[in-house]
Amino acid sequence: MAHPSPEHRPGRSxxxxxxxxxxxxxxxxxxxxxxxxxxxRSVLAGEAAAEAARKSxxxxxxxAAAEAAxxxADREAEDAEPDFxxxxxxxxxxxxxxxxxxxxxxxxxxxxRGLYKRHFFHKRDLARFxxxxxxFRLAGSENPEHMEDVRNSALSIVQGHRVSELMTIGEEIYDxxxxxxxWPGTRALAQAHLDAGQKVWLVTAAPVETATIIARRLxxxxxxxxxxxxVGGVYTxxxxxxxxxxxxxxxxxxxxAMAEGLDLSRCAAYSDSANDIPMxxxxxxxxxxxxxxxxxxxxxxxGWRLRDYRTGRKAAKIGIPAAxxxxxxxxxxxxxxxxxxxxx
Length: 344
Hints:
Layout lengths: L24 H7 L8 H40 L13 E4 L10 H11 L5 H17 L4 H15 L4 H16 L5 H12 L3 E9 H10 L4 E5 L1 E4 L2 E6 L7 H14 L7 E4 L5 H6 L2 E5 L3 H10 L2 E3 L11 H25 L1
Helix pairs in contact: 3-4, 3-6, 4-5, 6-8
């Protein structure tokens, strides 16, 4: 004859502790509901927690409303723009920054990863490249001292190697690490200029060899980049001049425009960084692409066009913490499941 389960026996509670005879008191204490009077300090703690929760919720709502308003303003500005680029305007061209404008992250970092895979340097050098990329992603902009550190790292690695060797390897590295990081939205903007019959140039602090490879693979006209000195086809570990960064980019665009017979007032330039304001200010059609906070502010103040191809306004800036957060959530869920199984 079947016996009713304990939880269905008359007069028994699902948590009747008489069923736990012989079970350690620590466990029974955990399962039974303990009551204690609220003290003045516990009341204060509860009220403070509730007030903090309300405040954070209100701040989050205000932030969401502000971002929605900014996004609506950006869309309205886009809708009001005249048709551009102008088809058949041979006095116009487009100049695109590379890092975080055309491609997510820093090209030199991805190039370094490829060289490490090919045993060009040691783990401590890779750790330095990882830190440099992390800083670049978190800061969302280019710090001159940080960029100089990146430059010195790259120069020390390629010193003594042949230019032709690095060009061949660069083609492979593009396929391995860079191709999938090109922003489709920015790529479409570049293609629109090409379809209009205009030339499109990359302008970057990355080595000109790397920039040239990327430009060629994207079907662009060419690239302006940092020139590393070579003698007899071998890198010396020195630069010709300085990195193509900040004002140097503007000078490169100005010189190329003069050589090509371009009218800069009819040209366009695209960048994510406030460091490129000198280049953007040269042309008649400046665009802020995935902009850092300084460039976004400057662009709005001067009526420049904005485009943001990130999944969220701060996606590129917080990419590493976001990924870490996903990992933490996944780890926490796994730990919870494991703990539940252990208790069962």
